[in-house]
Amino acid sequence: MPTLNPRLTTIVARLPAVRRQVRTVAADVLTAARDRAQTQRRTGAFARSLRLARGRVDTRVESTDPAALAIEYGHTTPAGQPIPGEHILGGAAADIAARR
């Protein structure tokens, strides 16, 4: 009976063509996230904090803004008022995925 190599996903993820495509998609998500952030924030600090970060086999879009989690997912004010998240990164990723 045939078996799959348990490292198959790692092997495929490290293929040069796959790595190039992952970087291309990540760059597209970064552009879309910056566009979304510019229209939804007044200061532009969150948009400026967005960047690509590379791991050993992946590339991700991340924010260095200390308020990134609160901006993305929402938070509660000290008075208890809920502030909904803006879903800038998640929305950008969904937009790019829908185009492909």
Ordered list of secondary-structure elements with their pairings:
Layout: H1 8-13, H2 16-40, H3 45-49, E1 50-54, E2 59-63, H4 68-73, E3 74-76, E4 82-84, H5 88-99
Helix pairs in contact: 2-5
Walk me through the structure.
With 100 residues, the protein is of the alpha+beta class. The chain has one domain (8-99). It has five helices and four strands. It has helices spanning 8-13, 16-40, 45-49, 68-73, 88-99; strands at 50-54, 59-63, 74-76, 82-84. The strands form two sheets. Strands 1-2 form a two-stranded antiparallel sheet. The model has no long low-confidence stretch (mean pLDDT 93).
Query: What is the residue-mean pLDDT, rounded to a whole number?
Result: 93
Which regions contain 5 or more consecutive residues with pLDDT less than 50?
none
Helix content: 40-55%
Strand order of the largest sheet: 1-2
What fraction of the residues are assigned to beta strands by DSSP? 15-25%
Rg of Cα set = 17 Å
The main sheet comes to:
2 strands, antiparallel
Supply the helix-strand structural class.
alpha+beta
Q: Into how many domains do the coordinates divide?
A: 1
- Number of helical segments? 5
Could you give the distance between the termini? 36 Å
SSE ordering:
HHHEEHEEH
- Given the C-alpha coordinates, what overall shape results? elongated
Number of strands: 4
Pfam family, one: DUF5403
InterPro entries: DUF5403
